Amino acid sequence: MRTLGASVPGTNGSGRAPGGRQAPLGPVRSRGAGVREDLFVVIARRLVYVGMVFLPLLKFRFGHAFDSSDGIFLIAAGFLILSRRPPKKAPPVPGWYFGSFVFILAGVVASSQAVSKGSSLEVVLNAIFVFFVLQWMLRQLLDTTVRIRLAMGAFIVGTTASAFVAFLQTEFHVLGYGQVANLEGARAIGLSDQPNVAAVAFALATVFAIGLVLELGLRRHWYLGLCIAVLGSALIFSASVSGQTSTLVGCIVLFIARGIRMRTVLALIAALAVVYVIAITVQSNGTHFDLDPLARIEQTTTANSDYNTVSSREDTIRDSWSGIVESPIIGHGLDQTTIAVYYDPYLGVYYPAHNIVIIYWFAGGIFMVAAVALMMASAFRRVLVRRDAPRGTVLAGCVTVLFFSLQSPELVDRWLWLPFMLALCFRVPARRRPGVPDLVPAPPSTDTETSPSARPARFVRGTVGRHARPVTDGSGPTGKPSSS
């Protein structure tokens, strides 16, 4: 830190720049030299990484409405607000903010029709936290590609811990094993609260880990390969067909976005096949129920099967559609009692619609559906504007959770909106301003032998603005070749 009156580059030693202009106080950002960040910003960013670790660990909660990660994120937001030099955040997305406002307004209006108005307003409060507070904080603190990678890595670490617990549940019947003599009791949940929710976290973390391996390399980051093996096994232990198919769809999008060579794809398929064989062996020793993905697909799609879930999902959509016809504009409310419209006679429980479009339409009306579509489209646009490795990984994550939500009842779940908020953290590539010529005059030479007026101006192609790099003819101030 420099104090008032200290010698600052670009000043005459008195704290003033040439011409009498007051030089900036404190550290000065210079080309090639960074500025030490505010301590509160550093603490807030570290807390965000910790919150990412706890985000998939739904066993740890603060009350009924908020997860443990929410408390950590709120503390991080408090430190960020107290910082005197907050980092420069990624440009805001008007579509996201407009959609968020419409979502909140539609949720408040729909809550007036809910069975439990207080519980419905709790969901609205969750939406305010996720769509405004959390995304604002992430856009400020995850201001570089490296930090976005670290956030994904932290999520992978937390989900892998949950996946390892899923292995222990399947093999040794400990740490939350169902202890129920049916298939539902044999499905592993890890440190989550439900098998399908655990499965989508495993799926998202698997896609993130594969994307980071393809970008950074497996030799130096071998631990990511270990995480992929544990996560892939846990996907099988959860016996979630939706989670497994979502992982495959996310990987396909990742390979297309990254332009992966066929040799790399085949190597990855071979590695996953080895994980599959090991996981099936472990599962057969740990439980008497068949959790093989191929067997699960047959069970969930066969009409006469006791575990057919396709028909029950169709029934939830059909019953919800009847409610949509009754109130297509306002909706019925966002609380669990209101949205659970289908009664399962075999399990004796009520289910909401297992489709993101139908459940939003039933709960909050058509305006809520439009708001969600606008928000997601804004996030997709941020990752599609440029084709690079980090954006491709986040794009694949967005597709993974979106595909899963088409088969599952989700509203403002953190894992659903996490990849979309990470997409908002990317900066928009600079565009050439209209009316500014592509050819700009180079700055005059500082050679003492030839005056600026005697040397004709040269035109070079480059960036216009204060960050443009001066282009010279290869000679330094003394006329000798520059070492740079």
Describe the secondary-structure layout:
Elements: H1 39-54, E1 61-62, E2 66-67, H2 68-82, H3 94-111, H4 117-141, H5 145-172, H6 183-186, H7 195-216, H8 222-238, H9 241-258, H10 262-286, H11 293-301, H12 310-326, H13 336-339, E3 342-344, E4 349-351, H14 356-364, H15 366-384, H16 389-405, H17 414-424, E5 439-441, E6 459-461
Antiparallel strand pairs: 1-2, 3-4, 5-6
Helix pairs in contact: 1-2, 1-5, 3-4, 3-15, 4-17, 5-7, 5-8, 5-10, 7-8, 7-9, 7-16, 8-10, 9-16, 12-14, 14-15, 15-16, 15-17, 16-17
Q: What's a concise summary of this model?
A:
By secondary structure, the chain is mainly α. The protein is built from 17 helices and 6 strands. The N terminus and C terminus are likely disordered.
Task: Describe the protein in words.
This protein is mainly α and 484 residues long. The chain has two domains: 36-87; 92-424, no CATH class. Helices cover 57% and strands 3% of the residues. It is built from 17 helices and six strands. The strands form three sheets. Strands 1-2 form a two-stranded antiparallel ribbon. A two-stranded antiparallel ribbon has the order 3-4. Strands 5-6 form a two-stranded antiparallel ribbon. A hairpin with a 4-residue loop joins strand 3 (342-344) and strand 4. The longest helix has 28 residues, at 145-172. The radius of gyration is 27 Å and the shape is globular. It starts with 38 loop residues before the first helix and ends in a 23-residue tail after the last strand. The model is unreliable at 1-33 and 437-484 (pLDDT under 50).
